[in-house]
Amino acid sequence: MATSHIESNKNDIAKIVIMPGDPKRVEYIVKNYLENYNLINEVRGELGYTGFYKGKKVTIFSSGMGIPSMGIYSHELYTEYDVDTIIRIGSAGSYTNELKINDIFLVDKTYSESNYPLYYSKSNERTVNASKELNNIIKTTSKELNIDIKEGTCHSTESFYTSDFNIDEFRKENNCDCTEMESFSLFINANKLNKKAACILTISDSLITKEKLSSKERETLFNKMILLALETTLKIEN
Question: Model-level pTM?
Fold first, then answer.
């Protein structure tokens, strides 16, 4: 079985998917953390591998960039491949001095101006929650690994480049701590389809201090976040 965007057979994909945006990050995770892995997708350059982490079957699959791309891939994984759980891992830009470069941020809920839910489920949601059960597992795992995490609300934006954007005014209105571009459609899909979804982010840029990681650092220096996601999979029943 295949879709327009995924060439895999149904049994090629695990019930649990870890989903970076970047295909290169997929390759990094697979080659450094998984055993007995196989390439199961490369349509449009979005890579998917299924392998084993400490005996647990897991798929690592790139979502591409943006709410629409994540919306397509997460929907097809949930509906056509019977995936139960997707953990997005990615980078984010900080809206506050409290979130520093390389901090790990667990998204409790995400806010967006996107019309994605209007077309997907005929709703006008602006804020949507992550899966509470899954987030609780992530928090428990972070304590066991002694990995500090911060929690809060993420701004899932449709535009990477903006003009006349006032962070202080936006935060007063919407109470967002950081920004990224994929979690909104993932959470909308999961909630609509009765699935589980979470989003773990590493702060790669500060919109306050203007510090930022290089593209190479983004590919390879997110090991705490990766480890947290992988260790979380070991606690998920499927």
Answer: 0.94
